[in-house]
Amino acid sequence: MSESEAAMHGSGALMEGSPYAIPSRKLTMWLFIISDAVTFGAFLFSYGYLRVATPNWTRPFETGSVINVVLMTVVLITSSLTMLGAVDASKVGDKAKAMRFLYSTMFLGLLFAGLHIREWFQLFRHGITIGSGLFGQTFFTITGLHLLHVISGVVAMFVVATKYSRGSLTPSYVETTGLYWHFVDLVWMFVVPLVYLTNIAR
Amino acid sequence: MTTASASGNVIRKYLPVYFVLLGIFLIEVFLAFQNFSTLTLVIILLLLAIASAALGLMYFMHLATERRSLLLTLIPVTIFVLLMMNMIWSDSFRLLHMRPLQ
Fold first, then answer.
1. In A, which residues are within 8 Å of B94 by CB distance?
2. What CATH code is assigned to A24-199?
3. Given Cys at both, which of A72, A108, A137, B40 links B36, Cβ 3.0 to 4.6 Å?
4. Closest chain A CA to residue B93
5. In this predicted complex, what is the ipTM?
């Protein structure tokens, strides 16, 4: 059997090891995260330039909004902690505990989305929408993209949790989903200071 | 070690990182209420956000415990692309105002 034929038929002895000593699924998630980070980077850079270059920028966030954002941030960072618990419990084979942590993370994700939407409706009441000038356009685009990631993460987590509990997915799927969830948390750490904290009403 | 105690330990292990992240965030909120110019505030908040992100990457995403080559492949490339993007955005302002090339 030639080398290429052996590779085609999955002869393990001829396959190269992973250069980073991680499963290909995890490496793929890392590559996705990097590309997504660059996408968010583009939005945040454009926002940053517009924000600094525009003298009469809208500053709509009152104390109530700041409290809401603090709550949202605490919820999201806590969800990262529960996700760590889920990944660890799945690795050691404690399925019941992993499921509890996964459901806690999903709940916190949904709570975050709820608080987020509440904030949006608050802005709508003040007449700020995606069509109302530079602030509305940049704010709703960036936070909307992040919210889409949160909702996608909760859906992905639900699918992985359901299949993992049935035994049709391995713990490595929980770990990969966790990696994505931490990334969503990480992006929020840039969105909050740039999009919310520089726009507090004076 | 029992399986039940193992996942409890991981929460305890990462609690300091969790509190540091919350602490950095509260510092950001405090600074937002101070009288800095917009540019200064953006720069300070961005630096604090980078510190938070580094902690998240290293500990929550376990990049600190992965093989060093993974970190060296992913992070410099990302920073390079973001910096290059920074060049393009500033150029887009010149195009926006239709200023001639200098």
1. none
2. 1.20.120.80
3. B40
4. A49
5. 0.86
> In chain B, where are the structural domains located?
1-65, 66-102
DSSP string, chain A: --HHHHHHTT-GGGSPPPTTSS-HHHHHHHHHHHHHHHHHHHHHHHHHHHHHH-TT----B-HHHHHHHHHHHHHHHHHHHHHHHHHHHHHTT-HHHHHHHHHHHHHHHHHHHHHHHHHHHHHHHTT--TTSHHHHHHHHHHHHHHHHHHHHHHHHHHHHHHHHHHTSS-HHHHHHHHHHHHHHHHHHHHHIIIIIGGGB--
B3/A94 CB distance under 8 A: yes
This prediction has a pTM of 0.87
Q: Which residue ranges make up each domain of chain A?
A: 24-199
